[in-house]
Amino acid sequence: MSESDQTQTQTESLRHRVENWMVGQMPIIQMHGGESVVRKADPETGEVVVELGGACAGCGISNLTAENIKSDLIMDFDDVEDVRVKVPSSGDHGNSTVEGGRGGEIQYGGGDTGHF
After folding, report:
1. What is the arrangement of strands in the sheet containing 82-86, beginning at the earlier edge strand?
2. Average of per-residue pLDDT values in the chain
3. What SS3 state is found at 24?
4. DSSP string spanning 42-107?
5. Shortest CA distance to 53 belongs to which of 70, 68, 39, 71?
6. Does 11 score more than 80 pLDDT?
7. Per-residue confidence (pLDDT) for residue 45, from 0 to 100
8. What is d(CA 71, CA 82) in angstroms, rounded to the nearest whole number?
9. Does residue 92 or residue 7 have the better pLDDT?
10. More confident residue, 85 or 94
11. Which has the closest alpha carbon to 96: 105, 85, 109?
12. Is the pLDDT of residue 113 over 80?
């Protein structure tokens, strides 16, 4: 297996593991009308980016949810060192924000807003 193939497999593996972990969190998030998608999971740097959408946009406790996701991912995965959780402060609510909560295409802005 080439180095690039191995890196791609590691990336998919970390992404898959983080996605599965997020699925376990979804009943709580969905109960409040929220959704999530893993935007990045880099095993080389240990960086993970998760985007919350749906009712999480503008929710008063979305920052608490984001902090819990950050700390739990770092505690639960040895290869995760840095977690960013993007939560739009306003915008569309519902499935259009992250396409049903799994693997959506719509993203909130290209840059880091510094929200978290």
Report:
1. 34-42, 47-54, 82-86
2. 75
3. helix
4. ETTTTEEEEEEEETTTT-TTHHHHHHHHHHHHHHH-TT--EEEEE--SSS--STTTTGGGSS----
5. 39
6. no
7. 95
8. 9
9. 7
10. 85
11. 105
12. no
Angle at 18 between CA 55 and CA 78, to 5 degrees: 130
Condensed to tens digits (0 to 9), the pLDDT of residues 53-77 reads 888 888 888 889 899 999 999 999 9
Count of CB atoms situated within 10 Å of the CB of 101: 20
- The pairing of beta strand 82-86 with beta strand 34-42: unpaired
Q: Is the CB of residue 33 less than 8 Å from the CB of residue 55?
A: yes
CATH class of 3-101: alpha beta
DSSP 116: -
